[in-house]
Amino acid sequence: MGLLSIIASSFAIDAYGPISDNADGIAGMASTSHRICDKTDALDAAKNTTSTIGIEIAISSTALMSLALSGAFVSSVSISTIDILGPKVFIGLIVGEMCPYGYS
């Protein structure tokens, strides 16, 4: 749940990508000087980094939240025969719960 506390900041940072991409496109269409194009290229490189970090946080928070939801389901239904902490079950749950997100 702690990973979800920074998700709003992560999405706000991820929204930076289209803004810098538009700035680069406008600078290119306006035939501005090379100095400005160099600065917008640097912003474009920063966009790629922040976009990657935002995607990684979103994927990892989705995986952990899916696992937490299945743990809550197991405890609310009082199923005692499933050991979530077993390595094979744990990996199977993570892979199984990420399949719908991977296909969508």
Automatic annotation (TrEMBL):
Keywords: Ion transport, Magnesium, Membrane, Translocase, Transmembrane, Transmembrane helix, Transport. The keyword DNA damage does not apply. The keyword Amino-acid biosynthesis does not apply. Its EC number is 7.1.3.1. It holds the Pfam family H_PPase. It is found in: Endomembrane system. It is a multi-pass membrane protein. One of its GO terms (molecular function) is diphosphate hydrolysis-driven proton transmembrane transporter activity. GO terms for cellular component: endomembrane system; membrane. PANTHER family: K(+)-INSENSITIVE PYROPHOSPHATE-ENERGIZED PROTON PUMP. This is H(+)-exporting diphosphatase.
